[in-house]
Amino acid sequence: MAGHLEVLAFAAFAAVMATAAFEDFRRLVIPNPLPILLCLLWPIYLVATGLSMAGIAASVGCALLVFVFGAILFARGLLGGGDVKLLATATLWAGPDGTGKLLMLTCVFGGALALFMLLPVSRHLAIMLRRLLGQSTAATGRGLAMPIPYGIAIAAAAVVVMRPPSLG
After folding, report:
1. Helices 81-118 & 2-27, crossing angle to 10 degrees?
2. What DSSP string runs through the chain?
3. Which residue from 7, 14, 99, 127 puts its CA 20 to 30 A from 160's CA?
4. Residues of the domain holding 141
5. Distance of CA 69 to the CA centre of its chain
6. 24: exposed, middle or buried (C-beta count within 10 Å: 0-12, 13-18, 19+)?
7. Tally of domains within the chain
8. Measured between alpha carbons, how far is 86 from 102 in angstroms, rounded to an integer?
9. pLDDT in tens, the chain (168 residues)
10. Could you give the CA distance from residue 130 to residue 26 in angstroms, rounded to a whole number?
């Protein structure tokens, strides 16, 4: 039963992460209810995995550290507020064992996404897709100042890190 509950928790986690990635691409915003929903779903994951109280405390501690450092990056204009919240909640789920991998994969995926978005064809494709999705292109920027929907990288890294062993 616990295995099924873990897969259910992962499916919900992945669905919320996919929604966050989509919304960040579409509007360059990660809606606040998504990280909140991840926090509300976390106890299901805890029950499924049987994490100890020490493990729970360590997970919360890692998430708080990521949030604090993310808030500093946000204050310096280097990371969006939604990205900080999404990364902190992903860290909560990843716990101390997965935090390093989560952060490293987020950087790798984010760097690849940034390089991809620097290509003129990618920039035009993103603008066209945002128009199709009903988003104004006024916020898309120009040149190196083009905003990167980093929520895509965070969500991808989080799903890779959190994939249950039973799924692959």
Report:
1. 70
2. -HHHHHHHHHHHHHHHHHHHHHHHHHHS---THHHHHHHHHHHHHHHHHT--HHHHHHHHHHHHHHHHHHHHHHHTTSS-HHHHHHHHHHHHHHHHHHHHHHHHHHHHHHHHHHHHHHSHHHHHHHHHHHHHTT--SGGG--GGG----THHHHHHHHHHHH--GGG-
3. 127
4. 2-167
5. 15
6. buried
7. 1
8. 12
9. 557 888 999 999 999 999 999 999 888 899 999 999 999 999 999 999 999 999 999 999 999 999 999 999 999 998 999 999 999 999 999 999 999 999 999 999 999 999 988 888 877 787 787 777 776 555 444 444 577 899 999 999 999 999 987 665
10. 6
Q: Report residue 105 as tokens.
A: 């994969």
Residue written as tokens 């509950």? 5
Per-residue tokens: 13: 């986690």
